[in-house]
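Side project, low priority. Logging it here so it doesn't get lost.
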Amino acid sequence: MVALRHTMVLTPVPRPWLVDALAVLLDLAEDTRAEAGRVLLPDGREVPDVRIVTGGRHLRPGAVYESTAEGEPGETGRITVEQWNRRRALRLALAVSAPDGAFALRGTLHRPDRPRLLEIDGRARVENVWSALSRVSGAARLRCDDWWAAADTGRTTRTAPLSARVECGAARADLRAVPEPGGPDGHWDVTVTVRLRGRWLLRPVAAVALRLGRRRLRQSLARALDEWAARWNDVVPALVATGPDALRQEILAADIT
C-alpha cells in the first residue's frame, strides 16, 4: 500500500449560503412543469435537450428523463427520480450508454432543506481495455455537519467528513479529505489523503509498482489537486457573494438555447 497526502487552500463556502442556494435550485425545479414530453420553466421556456418519457410523473418517483442532445452516435442518457422529498431525501439515478462503454450513478442527498449527508455510488464498463481495468466501481460520502464543524471550528471526528473509494480488478484507491480553518482570511486548508493498493492476484505486482512510482504519483496528485483548487478559487468567491434572489434571477435570465 502507498499513502499520498496533499493540502489544498480553498475559498470557503458558508453553510447558510449553501442551504439558501439549494433552496433556490429546488424551488426552481419544482416550479417547472411537464407538457407533452417537454419540461418547461416557470416563464414557459423549454428546457433544452431533455424529454420526460413518463407522462404526468414530473419530479415524482419513477419519473424518467432522457437526454436529446446530439452526442456520439449510439450514446443515450437517462435520469430517473427515485425519491423527491425535501424533508427526507432526494435520490436520482443516472445511466449513460455508449459504444465504448457505459456508466451508472446514483446520488442521494439526505434532508435537502438542511443537507446532512450526500452519498454517491456508481459503476462503469469500458470497452477495448485490459480486462482488469474494464470494470470500475466507486462510492463517496460527504457528512455535511462534520465537514462544516471541522472547516469552521477545527473540530475533528474519528472518520474523515469526506471519503471516497474507487476500485477495479487491478487496484483500489481510498480517499479521505479533512478541512480545517486557515489563516485570517478565513480560507479552508483541506488535507487529502489517498491510499493505493493492488487487488487479488495482482497485489504483489501492484505493491512493487506503487512503491517504485511513489514520487511520481505524489507529484501527479499534488498537481491535479492544485489545478482543481485554482479553478475552485476562481469561481467560488463570486458565486458565494450572490444572494438567493440574485441567484434565482441569474438562473432565470440565463440563455438556455
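Brief comment: The mean pLDDT is 89.
Revisit when time allows.
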